[in-house]
Amino acid sequence: MGEERDGVPLTNLDQELFPGAGATKRDLIDYLDVMAGRFLPVLRDRPLSVIRVLRGQDRFMQKNLPKYTPDWVPRATVWAESSHREVTYPLANDRRTLYWLGNQRAVEYHPALMTAGSTHPTHLIMDLDPPEDGGFGVAVAGARLVRQALADIGMSGAVKTSGAKGVHVFVPLAEGAAVEDVAAAQRAVAARAERLDPELATTAFIREDRHGRVFLDATRAGGATVAAAYSPRARPGVPVSFPVGWDDLDRVTPADFTLRTVPGLLGDRDPWAAGMPAPQRLDPGLVAEGHTIPVARVQAMHEGKRRARARREAAGEG
């Protein structure tokens, strides 16, 4: 039997979200409902990609709105350079849209780094990714290096769990920051953090070059996305990307924050909004240094080709 909330039809609410979720579709809708006042501000006016998990299918990321989307769902059309076409994204600007997305089994919410119609990123973002055999504590140690590198130039950010094993650091930026300058600044922050403790952290984009160190991922720039604060993740137990105070990082684990536990932990608080510093201007020296550092993906692509060629030559296939 279907139900409605705010006129939005909801179906199959008592089905498990996905195998191992330990939560139903109703749990997801209830979470989006109680969290809307805190979740909508981090999504508002940002072209939104979602990860959906349909029954019997692998999870997939959806960017383009399906043709059956109700007319009342806000949207923005963006030219996608990679696919050479226009993509129509939803804008999660209201509670009804959250209900509709939840009913579509949209578990994860990955907003754009810029608002619709803007070409200026709103945050500098660092993604701390621990090695496969490393735990959350390694990511936290990497985040502290990033915090120090930022503090050295008078900048500061807020931190949250990724909802997986990693940590995200967000630095709010003053209006008007250029995409290329933000990307360059992120590369420089990563390089400076790496120099603080090269035994712990690395900027190596190629996984085999990391040698058990935490990866300082500075690639969340331009057209990239990142899981929003308070977004559930499509992982066992449905963990949530959750804001944590810098002083509390050593006392928590990602598993503390799930679809079921987060509303009770928060009460009426919004620690992401409360912990976010005021917008900051990019340090000119940081930007200048970053522009001298190659773009990681491009560098990795060339290096991958070089290594493949060397292997062929070593095998006598040159």
UniProtKB/TrEMBL annotation:
Keywords attached to this entry: Ligase
Domain DNA ligase D polymerase intervals: 24-272
Domain of life of the organism encoding this protein: Bacteria
Entry keyword Membrane: no
Organism per entry: Actinoplanes campanulatus
Lineage, uppermost ranks: Bacteria, Bacillati, Actinomycetota, Actinomycetes, Micromonosporales
Alphabetical list of InterPro entries matching this protein: LigD_pol_dom (IPR014145), NHEJ_LigD (IPR052171)
Record-level Gene Ontology MF annotations: ligase activity
Protein's name in the database: DNA ligase D-like protein (Predicted polymerase)
Entry-linked Gene3D superfamilies: DNA primase, PRIM domain
Pfam family name, one: LigD_Prim-Pol
